[in-house]
Amino acid sequence: MGEDQIDHTPKDEKFKLKIGEAFDVVGERVQTDYKRLGDNLFEVAFEVSLRNHKKEDVRVLVEEPIPGDWEMLSNTHSYEKVSARLIRFEVPWAKDTEAKVRYRIRFDIEPFLK
Predict the structure, then answer these.
(1) Whole-angstrom Cα distance, residue 46 to residue 31?
(2) d(C-alpha 102, C-alpha 100), whole Å
(3) Cα-Cα end-to-end distance for the chain
(4) pTM of the complete model beyond 0.70
(5) DSSP letters spanning 13-62
(6) In sequence order, which residues have a C-beta less than 8 Å from that of residue 21 and are 6 or more positions away?
(7) Which residues of the chain have pLDDT under 50?
(8) How many helices (H) and strands (E) does the chain have?
């Protein structure tokens, strides 16, 4: 296990600490569809494949950045809107199995162009 550095952190604030890699938990993200609906309007689908080679069940957080003003059109797992540009899927995952998180979004990048 490696180490990370923590600078001064204010009381009651959150921070991220990387404590190592999980070599027996694997994730792959693939864009499965892409449609341009207008000058700045797009519809995109993704699939995140997760493989758990551990000997126990795990819970995985899949965080996905979302550009522009967006709308979720379909999803296989419930998600949390962490911020305007980030969603998080929490995936319970059984040992020695594969899980797939699929979602489709429509987004408008017009706000980025102003």
Answers:
(1) 4
(2) 6
(3) 45
(4) yes
(5) ----------TTEEEEEEEEEEEE-SSSEEEEEEEEEEEE-SSS-EEEEE
(6) none
(7) 1-3
(8) 1, 7
